[in-house]
TrEMBL record:
Gene3D superfamilies: Calcium-transporting ATPase, cytoplasmic domain N, Calcium-transporting ATPase, transmembrane domain, HAD superfamily/HAD-like. This is AT2B4 ATPase. GO terms for biological process: regulation of cytosolic calcium ion concentration. It is a multi-pass membrane protein. One of its GO terms (molecular function) is P-type calcium transporter activity. It is found in: Cell membrane. Keywords: ATP-binding, Cell membrane, Ion transport, Magnesium, Membrane, Metal-binding, Nucleotide-binding, Phosphoprotein, Translocase, Transmembrane, Transmembrane helix, Transport. GO terms for cellular component: plasma membrane. Residues 352-529 form the Cation-transporting P-type ATPase C-terminal domain. Residues 624-652 are annotated as: Disordered. Residues 575-621 form the Plasma membrane calcium transporting P-type ATPase C-terminal domain. It holds the Pfam family Cation_ATPase_C. The chain crosses the membrane at residues 328-349, 404-422, 442-460, 480-500, 512-533.
Length: 652
């Protein structure tokens, strides 16, 4: 404990919160723990049994002045109490502690504390005589016949922002589960305060022993079928071991319940959490309280140890995904229209309506500026109001495909109408019959200007990819987007009015400008019309960019013992298989080249070898068996055995 930052505040806690709470209790009793530490420094400790999740307690042995030993223990109250045969009364004198006394203490002291969310810790000691030193390695014998000093209740208050963060997770389709080593009553009380357990909800709260009894068979093996019956309703797993946490994570990942594979994120701070953090799809380690092992095993480190940071991570992850989709939606619309206009116009009029420099400007709008504008949208709370995407969800959804094709139809209709009838509408000379190297025409300038205006307003449409109507929502929160749109509009005015021959543009009148802008604004109105068309009725539209599911993998690419393979590693395996095939082809080519080269050198020395250049193919060294599975090495020989590690990864 360190002095408070502000006068009158609480002392600052550094290190383990349980230890700090006990030290704070000592200070509240008007005692000085530092004096005891000075009297008994760490090097004077005779024996230390550190805390772990199996024994759920820790003990320290000191040598007494009379030659004997005294052991102090603290740990989970119900576990330590079972090993106590005496208890100190109010005068500090030990008296007999019977089984019925223990049951009464559990019922009247421990359970009420636990039900209020207090973590109960039992403090005890034992004296050993000086005549014979006990066998310190026999832990069960050492940790028995204890004298109970007290049972304390420690509250780890729920941070005020946590219930709201958990509620946001639940709205976002994320189920929060608590896996803890605490008493089940304590865990249930804290879970209720946090909002993990909701009134009227059908849920399960289990202890580690009961959890293992339900999911394991007579041989002690985990049965996935039994686990699939439990985990969907499981919300709290108390008195759990690190193995239980890893089993639960692996079971959810490997589960076949539901249409899609579950994506599992795990938080942890201890060394024992390492396997579960490594196994999870996303591992969150605590930056302050977390050990180095936990941080190394995790994917993301929470520097503030706050659950709300996980919500921010979810929000940013969804925002990045949506930003990529927005950019693709806009870029593909521009691509489809530009390619069709350039190709069809060139075929019909013998000259592309959009000139080379104009296409470069369109590409600049489409690639660089659009990526800056659409990929810099800040995340908003609305991202947490929908379910998460599946692992194999297409990057281009059916709604996006509807938007792309719908806007492409509008733009192509407008462009071709202007191209073939625009001169009559605006009462100007036609640009279709203009001779080669003639000055830029107003006709083709209007076509180019209208095309750019439509892209500019469609960029605003592209801000929404889920069929939302309000495309202007929170547009002011993204100054980069506003700057890009206004900057592009200003640059377009300069190009049209002053671009001249380099940009193949001729100055337009104010009336012509208004018509170009009006047609561009029509993109926004057309977007509203597209939104009214239900996507569910457009079954003919295909999605694009989805991941490959297990069913789509050819059987020959699957390792033999596929049942033992984690589905989370399947994509990695598939990549390895493709990588090995590529290496195999390269190795084959190198062998063929070496064979030709060696036969050539031999031919220079032995003229008779020139009779048939195919003789080398009959040599056993160059018989290539494509069906034989093997891990190729570019720098290895054919007979060289595969390293064990690669054999294991290749075969599962």
């Amino acid at each position: 404990l360190q002095p408070p930052e502000k006068e009158g505040g609480l002392p600052r806690q550094v290190g383990n919160k349980t230890e700090c709470a006990l030290l704070g209790f000592v200070l509240d009793l008007k005692q000085d723990y530092q004096a005891v530490r000075n009297e008994v420094p760490e090097e004077k400790l005779y024996k230390v049994y550190t805390f772990n999740s199996v024994r759920k307690s820790m003990s320290t042995v000191l040598r007494s002045s009379g030659g004997g030993f005294r052991m102090y223990s603290k740990g989970a109250s119900e576990i330590i109490l079972r090993k106590c045969t005496k208890i100190l009364d109010k005068n500090g004198e030990p008296r007999v502690f019977k089984v019925k006394d223990r049951d009464e203490m559990v019922k009247k002291v421990i359970e009420p504390m636990a039900c209020h969310g207090l973590r109960t810790i039992c403090l005890a000691f034992r004296d050993f005589p000086a005549d014979a030193e006990p066998d310190w390695d026999s832990e069960n014998e050492i940790l028995s016949e204890l004298t109970c000093i007290a049972v304390v209740g420690i509250e780890d208050p729920v941070r005020p922002e946590v219930p709201d963060a958990i509620l946001k997770c639940q709205r976002a389709g994320i189920t929060v589960r608590m896996v803890t080593g605490d008493n089940i009553n304590t865990a249930r009380a804290i879970a209720t305060k946090c909002g993990i357990l909701l009134p009227g909800e059908d849920f399960l709260c289990l202890e580690g022993k009961e959890f293992n009894r339900l999911i394991r068979n007579e041989k002690g093996e985990v049965e996935q079928e039994q686990l699939d019956k439990i985990w969907p309703k499981l919300r709290v797993l108390a008195r759990s071991s690190p193995t239980d946490k890893h089993t639960l994570v692996k079971g959810i990942i490997d589960s076949t319940v539901g249409d899609q594979r579950q994506v599992v994120a795990v938080t942890g701070d201890g060394t024992n959490d390492g396997p579960a953090l490594k196994k999870a799809d996303v591992g969150f380690a605590m930056g302050i309280a977390g050990t180095d092992v936990a941080k190394e095993a995790s994917d993301i480190i929470l520097t503030d140890d706050n659950f709300t940071s996980i919500v921010k991570a979810v929000m940013w992850g969804r925002n990045v995904y949506d930003s990529i989709s927005k950019f693709l939606q806009f870029q593909l619309t521009v691509n489809v229209v530009a390619v069709i206009v350039a190709f069809t116009g060139a075929c019909i009029t013998q000259d592309s309506p959009l000139k080379a420099v104009q296409m470069l400007w369109v590409n600049l709008i489409m690639d660089t500026f659009a990526s800056l504008a659409l990929a810099t949208e800040p995340p908003s709370e609305s991202l947490l109001l929908r379910k998460p995407y599946g692992r194999n969800k297409p990057l281009i959804s059916r709604t996006m495909m509807k938007n792309i094709l719908g806007h492409a139809v509008y733009q192509l209709t407008i462009i071709f109408t202007l191209l073939f009838a625009g001169e009559k509408f605006f009462d100007i000379d036609s640009g279709r019959n203009a001779p080669l190297h003639s000055p830029p025409t107003e006709h083709y300038t209007i076509v180019f200007n209208t095309f750019v205006m439509m892209q500019l307003f469609n960029e605003i449409n592209a801000r929404k990819i889920h069929g939302e109507r309000n495309v202007f929502e929170a547009i002011y929160r993204n100054p980069i987007f506003c700057t890009v749109v206004l900057g592009t509009f200003a640059a377009q005015i300069i190009i049209v009015e002053f671009g001249g021959k380099p940009f193949s543009c001729s100055g337009l009148t104010l009336s012509q400008w208004f018509w170009c802008i009006f047609i561009g604004v029509g993109e926004l109105l057309w977007g509203q019309l597209i939104c009214t068309v239900p996507t569910s009725h457009l079954k003919f539209l295909k999605e694009a960019g989805h991941g490959i599911t297990k069913e789509e993998i050819p059987e020959e690419e699957l390792p033999e013992d596929v049942d033992e393979i984690d589905h989370a590693e399947m994509e990695l395996r598939r990549g390895q298989i493709l990588w090995f095939r590529g290496l195999n082809r390269i190795q084959t080519q190198i062998k063929v080249v070496n064979a030709f080269r060696s036969s050539l050198y031999e031919g220079l020395e032995k003229p008779e070898s020139r009779s048939s250049i195919h003789n080398f193919m009959t040599h056993p060294e160059f018989i290539l068996e494509e069906d034989e599975p093997r891990t190729p090495f570019l720098d290895g020989t054919e007979d060289e055995p595969e390293p064990d590690g690669l054999q294991k990864r290749g075969g599962g």
